[in-house]
Automatic annotation (TrEMBL), chain A:
Region spans: Disordered: 365-399
Cell compartments where the protein resides: Cell inner membrane
InterPro entries: ABC_transp_permease (IPR001851), ABC_transptr_urea_perm_UrtC (IPR017778), LivM-like (IPR043428)
Swiss-Prot/TrEMBL keywords: Cell membrane, Membrane, Transmembrane, Transmembrane helix
Protein name: Urea ABC transporter permease subunit UrtC
Transmembrane feature ranges: 15-33, 45-67, 123-146, 153-172, 202-221, 242-261, 267-285, 292-313, 325-349
Principal subcellular localisation of the protein: membrane
GO cellular component entries: plasma membrane
One Pfam family matching this protein: BPD_transp_2
Biased segments, Low complexity type: 367-379
GO molecular function: branched-chain amino acid transmembrane transporter activity
Domain of life from the UniProt record: Bacteria
Topology relative to the membrane: Multi-pass membrane protein
Lineage of the species this protein comes from: Bacteria, Pseudomonadati, Pseudomonadota, Gammaproteobacteria, Pseudomonadales
TrEMBL record, chain B:
Entry-linked Pfam families: ABC_tran (PF00005), BCA_ABC_TP_C (PF12399)
SUPFAM superfamilies reported in the protein's UniProt record: P-loop containing nucleoside triphosphate hydrolases (SSF52540)
GO cellular component: plasma membrane
Entry-linked InterPro entries: AAA+_ATPase, ABC_AA/LPS_Transport, ABC_transporter-like_ATP-bd, ABC_transptr_urea_ATP-bd_UrtD, BCA_ABC_TP_C, P-loop_NTPase
GO terms for MF: ATP binding; ATP hydrolysis activity
Protein name, per record: Urea transport system ATP-binding protein
Organism: Marinobacter nauticus
Keyword tags: ATP-binding, Nucleotide-binding, Transport
Gene3D superfamilies with a match to the protein in the record: P-loop containing nucleotide triphosphate hydrolases
UniProtKB/TrEMBL annotation, chain C:
Organismal lineage: Bacteria, Pseudomonadati, Pseudomonadota, Gammaproteobacteria, Pseudomonadales
Keywords for the protein's UniProt record, in alphabetical order: Amino-acid transport, Cell membrane, Membrane, Transmembrane, Transmembrane helix, Transport
One GO CC term on file: plasma membrane
Record bears the keyword Transport: yes
Membrane topology annotation: Multi-pass membrane protein
UniProt cross-references to Pfam families, sorted A to Z: BPD_transp_2
Protein name (record): Amino acid/amide ABC transporter membrane protein 1 (HAAT family)
CDD domains assigned to the protein according to its UniProt record, in alphabetical order: TM_PBP1_LivH_like
Places the protein is found: Cell inner membrane
Principal cellular location given in the protein's record: membrane
Membrane-spanning intervals of the chain: 20-40, 52-71, 77-97, 158-178, 212-233, 239-263, 275-296
InterPro entries listed in its UniProt record: ABC_transp_permease, ABC_UrtB_bac, BCAA_transport_permease
Any one Gene Ontology BP term: amino acid transport
From TrEMBL, chain D:
UniProt KW Oxidoreductase keyword: no
InterPro entries: ABC_urea-bd_UrtA (IPR017777), Peripla_BP_I (IPR028082)
Origin organism lineage: Bacteria, Pseudomonadati, Pseudomonadota, Gammaproteobacteria, Pseudomonadales
Protein keywords: Signal
Span of the signal peptide: 1-37
Highest taxon, organism lineage: Bacteria
Pfam families: Peripla_BP_5
Protein name: Amino acid/amide ABC transporter substrate-binding protein (HAAT family)
């Protein structure tokens, strides 16, 4: 690899795109927005984690999960359990019949903390669980399904059913989970009040930092041979299999990766919003997450971030001004992205903006490098080729 | 048990009593045949005789209802597809299936037998060794000059060769080719025959083919299948003169 | 838990519980048949299926209002008219959607899923704009309200029987259409080998449109029938999504018989468990069992082993 | 931003100067027509930087007007707007016209938290009237406590909460349940009960209280059952009910499930007018009956503090005003009436305290009496809930309840009932 030096990488086209995103998230938005709006952007960004995972899982490997909310929720619940235990000191809960346990347990006649809550006294365990619990569930689901070659639509429907099951369970077991209200009234993280403006601003930057970590992990994966195999698997699963790869293992890996990202996003969501509830796990929430990824461009990890930001910002904007129009807009977005722009924003960017950039910076136009009909793929380890934000032409009508 | 062991020592591939049925229909019915090392075997037979299914069974794409497939002492019916590949069986499909989005180089690189586990694929680096192996195979399959081309721009025949190349780079002991010259021009057929002859110096090859001219060019022995069973087996001259074969091909 | 009941009481209860299972079964069959046709025969996931059902329900609501104000004398029979109109309206909309949207997505089943989800959002909001956010009450004719007294304890609700009859006639109709008519032959031909079907002169685009329209039309009938037992509101359709898809997938995608078998299995399991457990746990367990079985047997109950 | 800032009662003016002069004019008219004291200076009545000017005060309305909850919350929005308009017409609060900022919670709990934060931080509203589900209230609660705001919450709910920053204008569970069960036992001779609810916190808590109370009375609960929200198949539970033959079905099913439940009960041959078993609900208001259909619920009883058919002059006026403002086909349920109380109770607290400061309002609130309440008479308890009477209504086919019983005394609110937890 020629571009090993980080400085050089930042000067490359891909590096510049990352810099632009960093500039937007670290400098422009914090300067332009008041803490209240910035906090909302932070909330949108937590969905970007899910969207990045979906790019890897759905865009690249062709596995559409309609249950990403499950992993988002699990990560979020792990965080919420830790914070709730911290908030439920015996002093703070002195009026309860059993002081020292979360308030909703007391209302439900629980007299001691359930065993699975105990470990969440520990912050390090919590951090581990935020990634570990979603990954473990993803592994179990993935192992059961992918080794038996369940894929495509079937996988989508089963993950959807799992989202439904978990929602009903959490709502029904309210003594252990807080029920439909969720786990609320979270105040401090290791003694640090997360409700103040300063804390919210700091959490925003933590969120941005972790987002970039996940972006780089995703980028690393897609640029290795693994990334190419994921894409290849999507188009020619049998060829990959008969080239000696255990296709199921790769699918499990990428599904777990997406679950881990979603779990981190969920934990940050809990911190930024201040509570967690089953409504973020359910079917509707999970399908909405797919549209973040689809709008950004299902093959572009950077696009996923913009997709999550834009859809959520539009949702807030619409619901403030024209609430009854929002479902129409959202519906049209789904249909439009699928019918007219299957490559989402990243595709539009490549078609319309990049030629302008080329002219502006007098770069060699891309078309000369790869055939216009089918720009070549993904990320290559080798030298010198221009970065392709769309990463791959999505062409379902492959011969 | 002992007999079976002895056989698997003598033969590279021993298929015995192989049967598969789809909802009662036996696509392959109590089939047995044996391959010697470095042999080129061609399977012929009318449409629906079960030829492709045999390859599917050997490479694990279809699971056998009963019977055994012994390869180099290993029972393949119990292995998963990628394990079968790792034990040295390569399979080319009837329609060319290469990775259209990748270049020829990358197609071969992905097939290089290293970094096949998830972690391996994460850690895989393009070493000089890999590059050398890729260039070597590219030479063999007449695609040395096309290494940087996306596979989608190759001609139909070139894609077939590329797929053969993707098998070769895995250094398999047994190559299974399903109609490798289907849809090729005359010139391409000739080159493919030459390619196969080169390959057989180090490989055992099992081919399904319709083109009798081509079969005559390459085959050591020919197995004729009909309705899931072996109808006749032997040299090309032998099976051509077998009345049962003539009956099946010309009788109806 | 059966202490203190006489044998005859218990017998009656089991009879009624069996009937409850059967009515759940007919509900599932009605929900799933339209979807099974579309998914099984075309490979399209129609996430707006529930909204098509609700369109049928709103149609029934409008027809009932029309009869009440214009033809009060014939009110008792409005339901039959409503079913036919619901079928026609939903089928027409289905044909239009197929033309405008679905036909561009045939090779991308996952994308049809997203696009039809978008469609479902739009349909929901349309209902909300037209009929208001509140559920509407659909008035039933008097003869549908009561129950048939079989014994002291055993009473069979007339509308439950009615739903059952509709479900069975539709299942029979679909069977005849798919397996005993020329059109069904064409549909199956297109499913099995599209290029070949086209080559022998079948207008496959037309077949697709009709299939989709038929599936949507059946959803409309289901919706009309559900006004008797469920709610009619802008988002009522969403309640059916998960159950419906599971029934279809569990049955094996391309098998209509499988859909019926799976509807039967799931409904009996659920209603039996509901009797012994609390409702929520019964639901969770049923879903878990179905998902578990699907993990072990992904092709569903009745899938054909196809030689590939 | 897209928020709506409207002075209620059509008093929105573009020009600030004009507005001021008009308001002064209005104030002088008010001085002449009412016995109101002179408008106190703003810096005296507002020491914490709320959005109070010399002639206006800003409040927030925060309900879902989109999403699944919109159906239920719309009535509350209408009632709150009506109350604000009436207060403005009668001279405002401390001589200031109320302006409201309406935000949409979109049936999404983080949105509620967000929007309440916006109302408090950006708009500096003096009070928020809003939230409907417990989940949305729980989401708002930390925000409103953190920024020291005031929330008027209209829904009857499960109790177990008592925030210094919330006035609960609906009944907490014991008020509804104890009166309802006592009535069924005393008037109808009920001995056995079947508890049925949707599966979430309110029905579960309510049934818990009901069960304890039934135990205390020495009577029997023969079944308790929960179904997921949105469940539409109730045949099994109907069979269980038939098997157990309870005297009373105590139902707290909500939403779309309600429609399915009552239709299927009816279809299974249960005629509620026979009262065998008698059905007593705490969740079906006149609003819900519109979706269920009056003929399906004829004969059921509901235990609540308010019915549209209540026969008193306050209510007559209220119903007339509500219909005039929002249309003749409107129905008014328990929560809608409770929402209507919010702005009035706030106005009285402000005027009693002589200040818009939250701390002073909080202190002034307990003991406030509202004699013009449509439900009759209410008084704010020390615990921020309302003393109120509980009534039993019997549903008629036209979708209205006929009030058959009313407690003699005001029921004391008891959000943490001893012995019921």
């Amino acid at each position: 690899m020629k571009n090993t030096s980080p400085l050089k990488w930042f000067a490359s086209r891909e590096g510049l795109y990352y810099l632009a995103l960093a500039l937007l998230l670290v400098v422009i938005l914090p300067l332009a927005l008041d803490p209240f709006r910035l906090n909302m952007v932070g909330k949108y960004l937590t969905y970007a984690f899910v969207a990045i995972g979906l790019v890897m899982c759905w865009g690249k490997a062709g596995i559409l999960s309609l249950g990403q909310g499950v992993f988002f929720g699990l990560g979020g619940y792990c965080m919420a359990m830790f914070l709730k235990l911290e908030a439920s000191t015996p002093e703070a809960t002195a009026i309860q019949s059993t002081p020292g346990i979360p308030d909703f347990m007391d209302w439900n006649q629980l007299t001691e903390l359930p065993w699975f809550w105990e470990p969440f006294h520990s912050f390090s365990f919590t951090l581990l669980a935020i990634v570990g619990v979603p990954v473990l569930l993803a592994f179990i689901i993935g192992f059961a399904m992918f080794t038996r070659r369940v894929g495509g639509v079937y996988f989508a429907i089963i993950t959807q059913a799992i989202a439904a099951i978990l929602t009903i369970l959490i709502i029904g077991q309210q003594g252990y989970t807080g029920g439909v209200n969720g786990i609320t009234d979270l105040q401090t993280l290791m003694g640090w009040d997360i409700r103040t403006d300063e804390a919210k601003t700091i959490l925003y930057f933590v969120c941005v930092g972790l987002l970039f970590v996940c972006l780089f992990v995703a980028r690393f994966v897609q640029n290795r041979k693994l990334g190419r195999i994921l894409v290849a698997m999507n188009a020619q699963e049998n060829r990959v299999r008969f080239s000696g790869y255990d296709v199921a293992a790769f699918k499990i890996f990428v599904f777990c990766l997406a679950a881990a990202f979603a779990g981190i996003g969920g934990a940050l969501f809990t911190l930024i919003v201040g509570f967690m509830s089953p409504s973020f796990i359910g079917i509707v929430a999970s399908i909405e997450m797919v549209i973040f990824c689809a709008l950004g461009g299902r093959l572009s990890i950077l696009g996923a971030v913009y997709g999550a930001l834009l859809v959520n910002a539009a949702k807030s904007g619409f619901s403030e001004s024209f609430p009854e129009l929002w479902p129409f807009a959202m519906g049209a977005l789904f249909i439009g992205v699928v019918l007219a722009f299957p490559n989402g924003l990243a595709g539009l960017y490549q078609t319309y903006v990049m030629p302008l950039e080329d002219r502006l910076f007098k770069r060699k136009p891309k078309a000369a490098v790869s055939a216009p009909a089918k720009p070549a793929p993904a990320a290559r380890q080798d030298e010198g080729r221009d970065y392709d934000p769309m990463l791959d032409q999505y062409s379902p009508e492959k011969s | 048990m002992n007999a079976a062991k002895a056989q698997s020592k003598d033969f590279l591939l021993a298929v015995e009593g192989l049967t598969v049925s789809f909802d009662g229909f036996k696509a392959v019915d109590d089939l047995s045949f044996y391959l010697d090392p470095k042999e080129i075997r061609v399977i012929i037979g009318p449409n629906g005789a079960g030829k492709t299914t045999v390859l599917d069974l050997i490479c694990g794409k279809t699971k056998a209802t009963s019977g055994s497939i012994k390869f180099d002492g290993k029972e393949l019916t119990r292995l998963k597809e990628h394990q079968i590949v790792h034990s040295g069986v390569g399979r080319k499909f009837q329609t060319p299936s290469v990775f259209e989005d990748l270049t020829v180089f990358e197609n071969l690189e992905v097939s290089y037998p290293q970094g096949h586990s998830v972690m391996g694929a994460l850690a895989f680096k393009r070493s000089a060794e890999v590059v050398a192996a890729v260039e070597d195979v590219a030479e063999t399959i007449f695609l040395k000059d096309a290494l940087e081309q996306p596979a989608s721009l190759l001609s139909h025949g070139q894609k077939q060769w590329l797929e053969i190349g993707m098998l070769l780079i895995q250094k398999p002991d047994l190559l299974m080719l399903d109609e490798p010259v289907a849809g090729m021009s005359v010139a391409e057929r000739k080159k493919t025959a030459e390619l196969l002859r080169r390959i057989t110096k180090d490989h055992t090859v099992l081919v399904i083919e319709h083109d009798m001219q081509f079969v005559g060019d390459i085959a050591d022995r020919v197995t004729v299948m009909h309705q899931g069973k072996v109808l006749s087996e032997g040299s090309i001259e032998h099976v051509k003169s077998d009345p049962k074969v003539i009956e099946v091909y010309l009788g109806h | 838990m059966f202490d203190g009941y006489t044998t005859s009481e218990l017998m009656s209860i089991f009879a009624m519980q069996g009937f409850a299972g059967l009515s759940l079964f007919s509900v599932f069959v009605l929900m799933a048949l339209g979807l099974a046709i579309i998914f099984g025969q075309m490979g399209v996931i129609n996430m707006a299926h529930g909204e098509f059902m609700i369109l049928g329900a709103y149609t029934t609501y409008l027809v009932s209002g029309f009869f009440q104000s214009v033809l009060p004398g014939l009110f008792g029979g409005y339901f039959f008219v409503a079913i036919i109109i619901a079928f026609l309206i939903c089928a027409a909309l289905g044909a239009f959607i197929e033309w405008a949207m679905i036909r561009h997505l045939y090779r991308r089943p996952l994308d049809t899923l997203l696009a039809t989800w978008g469609l479902s959002l739009i349909m929901q909001q349309t209902y909300r704009s037209i009929f208001g956010a509140r559920e509407v009450g659909v008035e039933l004719p008097e003869w549908m309200m009561g129950a048939i007294q079989v014994t002291d304890l055993v009473e069979l609700p007339i509308n439950g029987l009615f739903v059952m009859i509709i479900a069975l006639s539709i299942a029979l109709g679909v069977y005849l259409l798919m397996y005993r008519s020329g059109w069904g032959k064409k549909v199956r031909a297109v499913v099995q080998n599209r290029p070949m079907a086209e080559a022998v002169g079948i207008n496959s685009a037309g077949v697709d449109r009709m299939t989709f329209a038929l599936g949507c039309g059946i959803a409309g009938i289901a919706g009309a029938a559900f006004t008797m037992i469920g709610s009619t509101g802008p988002s009522s359709g969403q309640a059916y999504i998960v159950d419906t898809f599971l029934v279809v997938v569990f049955g094996g995608a391309q098998s209509l018989i499988g859909t019926i078998v799976s509807a039967f299995g799931i409904s009996q399991a659920q209603s039996t468990m509901e009797f012994f457990l609390s409702g929520s746990m019964a639901k969770v367990l049923t879903l878990l069992v179905v998902v578990g079985i699907l993990m072990l047997r992904p092709e569903g109950l009745m899938a054909l082993k196809v030689r590939r | 931003m897209g928020t709506t800032t409207i002075a209620a009662g059509g008093r929105s003016h573009k020009s600030k100067g004009l507005r001021k002069s008009l308001a002064t004019l209005a104030a002088s008219i008010m001085l002449a027509t009412s016995a109101q004291a002179a408008t106190p200076a703003t810096d005296e009545v507002n020491t914490t930087g709320l959005a109070v000017t010399d002639d206006t005060v800003k409040v927030g309305i925060l309900h879902s007007i989109t999403g699944t909850m919109a159906i239920s919350e719309i009535g509350s929005v209408q009632a709150e707007k009506l109350a604000i308009e009436q207060i403005n017409e009668s001279g405002g609060v401390l001589g200031r016209q109320i302006e409201f900022v309406q935000e949409d919670g979109a049936s999404d709990w983080p949105t509620f938290a967000e929007k309440s934060r916006k109302l408090l931080r950006q708009d500096n509203v003096a009070a928020i009237f809003g939230a409907w589900t417990s989940a949305s209230r729980k989401a708002i609660l930390p925000v409103i406590e953190q920024y020291n705001g005031m929330l008027y919450y209209p829904t009857f709910y499960e109790g177990l909460e008592q925030s210094p920053n919330v006035i609960y204008t609906g009944q907490e569970a014991t008020q509804q349940i104890l009166a309802g069960i006592d009535w069924a036992v005393k008037e109808k001779g009920a001995k056995t009960f079947y508890l049925l609810g949707s599966d979430y916190i309110w029905p579960r808590t309510s049934n818990k209280i009901a069960r304890k109370h039934i135990d205390k009375l020495g009577l029997k609960v023969v079944g308790e059952e929960y179904y997921p929200l949105g469940h539409t198949q109730f045949n099994s539970v109907i069979n269980k009910i038939k098997l157990k033959k309870p005297d009373v079905i105590f139902a707290s099913v909500v939403g779309g499930s309600n429609v399915a439940f009552y239709k299927q009960m009816k279809a299974a041959g249960v005629d509620f007018t026979d009262e065998k078993p008698l059905l007593l609900t705490i969740s079906v208001t006149e609003d819900e009956i519109r979706g269920i259909g009056g003929e399906n619920v004829e004969g059921i009883y509901a235990s609540m503090k308010y019915f549209q058919s209540l026969d008193n002059p306050n209510n007559e006026e209220f119903v007339a005003a509500f219909k005039e403002a929002w249309g003749d086909d409107m129905v008014i349920g328990d929560v809608t009436q409770a929402a209507y109380l919010g702005p009035w109770l706030w106005k009285m607290a402000v005027e009693k305290a002589g200040s818009f400061d939250i701390d002073k309002i909080r202190e002034a609130s307990p003991g406030i009496e509202f004699t013009k309440a449509p439900e009759g008479y209410v008084r704010i308890h020390e615990n921020h809930h309302l003393w109120s009477k509980t009534r039993i209504g019997r549903a008629k086919t036209d979708g209205q309840y006929e009030v058959v019983y009313e407690t003699d005394e005001l029921m004391e609110p008891d959000p943490f009932p001893e012995g019921y937890q």
